[in-house]
Structures
1.
Amino acid sequence: MTRAVAAGLLLLLAVACTTPDPPRIEAGAPEDTACGEPQGPPRERTPATIDVVEQAYFCILANYWRAPAMDSRDLLVAGFAALTRALPGASTDLPALTGDRRADWAAFEAAYRKVTDRADLAEVTLDAMVAALDDNHAHWARGAGRPPGYYDGDGYGLGFQVDDGDPLFVAEVEGGAARKAGLRPGDVIENVDDVDVLRPRFPDARPVELRLRRGERRWSVTLTPGLYPRDLATLQTVRSRLIDDEVVHVRMRGFSPDSANRVFRAITRLRAGRDVRGIVLDLRGNGGGSPIEATRLVSAFVHGKVTSYLCTAGGRCETGHTDDTVELVGLPLVVLVDRGCASACEHFSSAVKDHAAGLLVGVRTAGVISGPGQPFLLRDNTVLTFPTRRHLGPNREIVDRIGVAPHHFVPATPGDAAAGRDAALAKALTLLDRR
Amino acid sequence: MRRTLAALLLLTACSAPAPPRAAAPSPTPPQPATLAAPTGDRPVGTAVLHLTDGSRPDPWNLDAEARELRVTLWYPSGEGEGERAAYMSPRESELTLAGTGAAAVPPDILSRTVVHATTNAPATGRFPLVVLSPGFTKPVSSLTSLAEDLASRGYVVAGVDHPYENHATTLADGTVAECLACDSDTDPGFGAGVVGIRAADVSFVLDELLKRKPALIDRTRIAMAGQSIGGASALAAMAADPRIDAGINLDGTTYARLPGGLDRPFLFMGTPEHAPGGRDGSWDRDWKLLTGWRHWITVTGADHQSFTDLPQLQGALGLKPLAGAPTAARLAEITRTYVAAFLDEHLRSRPQSLWKAPISGTTSG
């Protein structure tokens, strides 16, 4: 989920830059509830009110890709249900809803106002409405802010990356509580099913108890989320090296602006004056970012193809083509993917797979690619983000929730992690060997 | 710094349909700028040194096995000798303008900026040293107005160009290093990485200068100042190198950890964005860690570049000053006055009254 959110935020940036359309206003929505693209630097937030919830409600109904096929009452029911959970003593009930969006809103608002005018309950209500969309690129950002004492590059959380296969195990120890408690890669987590528990986000600081197993040894630790410094070198979006002087290995952590060019420059530099056999593009843990960068990266391996479609609920689609001004690399490609490869990473992976531009090795990708998140500014200066069109792969297949299956299924294992072995990379090198 | 960059990117690359500050094409070709005259009583000499640190590879140019630094010295000199120095080379001007997107002026116009220092001028004694470090993407020549003023007041100034962190730095072999670091400036931890690199750069520059210029530099009196990430680097360099006695940060978001705090004098000087409790929280965070003499100045109406030469160059570049900003002359005066007062107090032990009675248009905390 953390990754999905990060991916959504990256998308938000990219889309903010590429969508020149003027803010849309739904016909029939009250005039002062129109929502538009944020302009300029963010302004100071004001308290949320029922008017903000109203603006968001009409904003979603006017712009969310699935809204034409949605029952608008579902949003109000979800919001009211959350409100009643937050105020168990409230005596008001939700009046009858007819399916008329404006009349239903008026009824909802009247009932709401009888119950409360608390800003925090407006937040609870709106959070529930956004959650009701059940969309991994829908998000209401209100900026929890930076944890006090934050330094650029710091991580927040338990201090380790988890591999969310079965069983869950420690993939990498980054610092913080995990390092202090002596966790090591490969340690199996026996008492947690929901991986999100292991990825707390600020301001969540509740301690997490873990029952761990390393070989025959079993023990328990309690880790408290907090800030910790990370190794800066590992945070670089693009890192590259030569393997055995004949394979270019490029690790790409996200599709941030200019990242495709950074990959191209790394490949150019490392292949110069050498007979290089192929490229391993390591996208494990790549939470996504700009669809433009994903398209450019695909275009280094195939030309004249569709990379994705962006479609309305009615099935009208905009076709995304490769950018054939990008020079072809002309080397065999193996892409390493995992459950952390989300959003733009799946846009890239699905296009590579559908066009046979390379082989995918690892495990199925995240399936977190409902559509590019489009930001809308609300009247309290918060930003509501959701897709206005859904993403489909080059064969018009739905990638969202399903992910992209690799050609070669090579999951990470606790044993490999403990021994520092990288089975997926080893497989990639064999594949390039055979070509 | 990153936030500002990001904001600029959004404003310029994405949403702004018209160039934000370009003036209408003027009927006469733009004239190069003349920098404000130094206010001290000594003439100023200048020289360039190329220093190569063979102990570490260049952090940006993966094909360079050593880190090469370019240091511009400004120093109190004898009268009327040598030629007037160049602000930068025509090629550096062209690349700098291209990098900042100012295209509608002659590409060499920055190289024709008139400065006051002369080359080949003899030094006239031993002086305290001030290291200057520029903002990201900026050459150290962007701080020439401040550097010349300090030299005229009796300081040796060592301005460091950190290659590949700005649009153009001419190296010893004549090649021009361009901004490789610009590729990765959106990476998490980028700022923390840069200030670490600059701290190492500055320690190496100090090693070399103290070795090569013992007659010119008083090694017991050393300060560092910088703008933007250069100012953040002053804090990082002080944390890493006890030879630096005092530091100044001109509007730079800070990145260095200060385990155990910092007990040497430090000056924060910034725009309202960096006022106490302002949008950037890094100064509030670090202020609590400054346990020695400390002061925090906010300049009303200033923007991020107000502490550099840019306000003085705006006319030549066809840019209009920001609404509500003090004049270029006034900004130069404010910056020079506070920086010199700080250095006079902490490197020369001359207590200043300025801290109790801030200059008009500035607030002090």
2.
Amino acid sequence: MADRGSTLGRYPKKTSQIAMSSFLQVANLVGGVLFALTSIIVGVRLLWLARRTGELPELLIGLAFAVAGCIGYFLGIVQVFIELPETLERARPYASRALIAIGSVLIAVAIWKLFYVGKGWAPLSVLTLAVLLIFDVFPIDLGSSEPNFYFRRATQVLLLVPYVWMSLASLRFRKNLLRRWKIGLGDADPLLARRLRLWSYGTGAIAGLFLTVQLVAFVHHYSETRLPEELFVAIWGIACAACMWLAFFGKAPAASEA
Amino acid sequence: MTTSPVFDWTGHAIQDHTGLEALQARGTLRFALKEGGLDPSSVTPHEMSAVIKQLLPKFLKKSGVDDADGVCVRLGIALNTQNFSQQDQPRAAEAFFQRALTPKR
């Protein structure tokens, strides 16, 4: 056990701290790169599909993944790895927040167009979200640190709403699809059923990533405890990348699996 | 909540064939549609026909309707004679996920 008062006791602690810090940086890098890479691959694939079909949902979701998942997310973590010039560093958080907010709004529009066409409340919800997210990109200064903290957390939580919504709506849609197939409406497609579930988990993991960042911020705000945020973010990033990869490129299951 | 013409027609037809109250008839139909993964606001004649054949008898029996199977056969025949403007169209979500997740199949 380390003795805080002795020199001998301090060296192992410092070494373990350095080792932990390096581990967290590597985890952050691996999770971040996998997440950004998957986002750009899925985004480009959907944009390519949109170019061919001319349909809106693939365009919206493709843009959301390419813009927010890849560029926005990368801009959000790039300062950990690279020291940017001061001017760029000042603009970086705004650009990252703007792209991530745009991604959330695009996902919300896609949800409306996919699942709630003709429902009056859906475009209203999307519009409200878009207006509120302006305050995430350009936060208002509420005077003291406490209200500012809560305001930032509230606007950041809004970012995850479309991803939770997409995840739940897709799961519900999958459940209904299985029920329709059961009574002979449409051809049962086990691959589609499996990939839809992975898609739901993948979008849920994005929401999990956003939520974890906010929960860690709360813990850090109210206690001295330092949580390994980079590790949590990396785990969510890897989970999302794995689900999305399998959803778009996974092997076909046996016919009985769905 | 807006319901599709085929839902409204079937609700009335259940009332006529079974003597159930309007609310009970529509409620029973809603349960059957839910089990079939369908929405009363967008259900099409083809989908309703499948629900009437395969799911509605069970729910009518639960509502205390005698000869639920016979009622459903008559409902199915009557439904086929109707001319609804609503056509079967692929759902936006289903079409998208098929294009995006299972291309070239």
